[in-house]
């Protein structure tokens, strides 16, 4: 039959879910069976959430919508999956980084821990057309969005330029 776009999301979604599961496992105290259940619930939640927001031809489109964030508020999708294995939001905050951003886009999954942390790519695959739709700047559109207005240029940088 025709290849549904949903099948194409599988790798990206499983990469993202496995990553969050790995963070929970590293924190300790959660059984493997619970972790497996958590991962499956999270994958299911992500699939539902992304179903109509996945644009392989325009990978950055909808990036903000697909972004998973823990920022003093628990991401609802992670919270929902954790609820299935009896983990409260309070417990999650103890187990997971308090500042985590995970971008799940077609052909790329990346994350950042801490507001000023560096962005690490978990999964990357070439675009099926061989040529990316746009040069690099399109890849960072979602990431940049979060950054603007956060960081002001450092003071010593200004001092250096004003050497007259």
Automatic annotation (TrEMBL):
Annotated spans, Disordered: 127-164
Instruction: Give residue spans, biased composition: Polar residues.
Output: 149-164
Which residue ranges does UniProt annotate as crossing the membrane? none
Task: Give all residue intervals belonging to the Anti-proliferative protein domain.
Answer: 96-115
For bias type Basic and acidic residues, the affected ranges are 134-148
Q: What SUPFAM superfamilies does the record point to?
A: BTG domain-like
Gene3D superfamilies the UniProt entry points to:
Anti-proliferative protein, N-terminal domain (3.90.640.90)
Q: Which PROSITE patterns match?
A: BTG_2
- Fetch the SMART domains from UniProt: btg1
Protein name according to UniProt:
BTG1 protein
Q: Which gene encodes it?
A: Btg1
């Amino acid at each position: 039959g025709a290849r549904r776009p949903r099948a194409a999301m599988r790798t990206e979604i499983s990469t993202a879910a496995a990553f969050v599961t790995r963070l929970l496992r590293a924190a300790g105290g959660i059984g493997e069976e619970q972790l497996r259940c958590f991962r499956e619930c999270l994958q299911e939640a992500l699939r539902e959430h992304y179903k109509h927001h996945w644009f392989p031809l325009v990978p950055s489109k909808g990036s903000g919508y697909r972004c998973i964030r823990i920022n003093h508020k628990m991401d609802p999708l992670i919270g929902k999956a954790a609820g299935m294995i009896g983990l409260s939001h309070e417990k999650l905050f103890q187990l997971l980084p308090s500042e985590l951003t995970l971008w799940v886009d077609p052909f790329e999954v990346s994350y950042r821990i801490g507001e000023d942390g560096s962005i690490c790519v978990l999964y990357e695959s070439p675009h099926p057309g061989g040529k990316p739709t746009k040069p690099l700047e399109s890849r960072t559109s979602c990431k940049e969005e979060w950054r603007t207005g956060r960081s002001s240029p450092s003071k010593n940088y200004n001092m250096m330029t004003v050497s007259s």
